[in-house]
Structures are given as structure tokens and as C-alpha cells.
Specification:
The chain is built from five helices and nine strands. The radius of gyration is 15 Å and the shape is globular. The chain is of the alpha/beta class. It has helices at 10-18, 36-43, 79-86, 96-103, 148-155, and strands at residues 2-3, 27-28, 50-60, 63-72, 90-93, 120-123, 133-136, 142-146, 158-159. The protein has a single domain (2-159), classed as Alpha-Beta Complex (YbaK protein), CATH 3.90.960.
Length: 163
């Protein structure tokens, strides 16, 4: 484990520039934090304290829309519940290209905010079981701690049962 801006990947530096409040918090884990279990093991926290930032495409009356769902690491997203929360008829996982196009980040390293474009964000209330939580820092090897209050402020999520 190491931290400090000079060692961070370009995507993490871009996130730190977009969201100055996390500058200095992003930590690089060479062994990787791609899955919630990997991240929890590397950090030494419960899997439930990991924020999975999942990009899905919801099918609404005005067409398809990419959205981000913030889910605790120990729970699975329910696409029906996400679609309902989004006022959509259905939802599907975004392709790798769709994730990068919508957020500017690769799947497995997508942060909960700081995306290339404005996206609706949905957060499951079960995230509040842990405070702080840990979120991806722009790559599958970087994470940062964030309080629930900061997550709420910076991501501006719609809190809804999506698990």
C-alpha cells in the first residue's frame, strides 16, 4: 500500500483534480482492489464498507440512460428495484465501453462522482451501515475513504433500496 499524488495513475489524478476534497486521500494498492473482496482485504475493512459504483443503463420513456448505482460490497444490485427507482421499465449492466463513455473511467475503478458527464446516481441505504466507506479512486488499484455525509454531498445520490 502506498499513497501520494506522484505515484497515482492518471485517472486517479484526474479525479483528484475534479473533486479537490479527496486530494491526498486516494491510496494505491499494487495488488489491486478490483472486487469488493479484494478491496476489503487490502484495506482491512469489512466488505460492507466498500462502495461498488456500478454503471447500468435504464430503459426510460425518453430512451436509454446510463446511471450509477452505489451498493455496499456485500450486497447485490437488483435491476428491477433500480429500474423502479429510476422510473424506468428495465435496467441492464452497461458494457465496458458504455461505462467508460458515461463516466470517463474503466469498470472496476469507477468512482461514485467526478464523471465526465452528469449522471443520475442511486445509493442504497444499506451503505449507511458503515461510516466511513471506501470507494474506487478511478482505477482498479486505487481507493479512498469517504464519510456518508460527504458521499451524500458530493455524489448527490437518490437514496433508494436497489439491493
Amino acid at each position: 500500500m502506498s499513497s501520494g499524488a506522484p505515484e497515482l495513475p492518471a485517472a486517479s489524478l484526474r479525479l483528484a483534480e475534479r473533486v479537490p476534497g479527496i486530494s491526498g486521500r486516494i491510496t494505491f494498492f499494487p495488488e489491486g482492489t478490483k472486487t469488493a473482496e479484494d478491496a476489503a482485504n487490502a484495506i482491512g475493512c469489512p466488505v460492507a464498507a466498500i462502495v461498488k459504483s456500478l454503471v447500468f443503463v435504464v430503459h426510460g420513456p425518453d430512451g436509454d440512460e446510463p446511471v450509477v448505482a452505489l451498493v455496499p460490497g456485500d450486497l447485490m444490485l437488483d435491476t428491477g428495484k433500480l429500474a423502479g427507482a429510476a422510473g424506468a421499465s428495465g435496467a441492464r449492466r452497461a458494457t465496458l465501453d458504455e461505462v467508460r463513455d458515461a463516466t470517463g473511467y474503466a469498470a472496476g475503478g469507477t468512482p461514485p462522482f467526478g464523471h465526465d458527464r452528469k449522471l443520475r446516481v442511486f445509493a442504497d441505504p444499506e451503505l449507511k451501515r458503515n461510516d466511513p466507506v471506501w470507494a474506487a479512486g478511478g482505477t482498479p488499484n486505487t481507493v479512498f475513504p469517504i464519510s456518508i455525509a460527504e458521499l451524500d454531498e458530493w455524489a448527490g445520490p437518490i437514496w433508494a433500496d436497489v439491493t
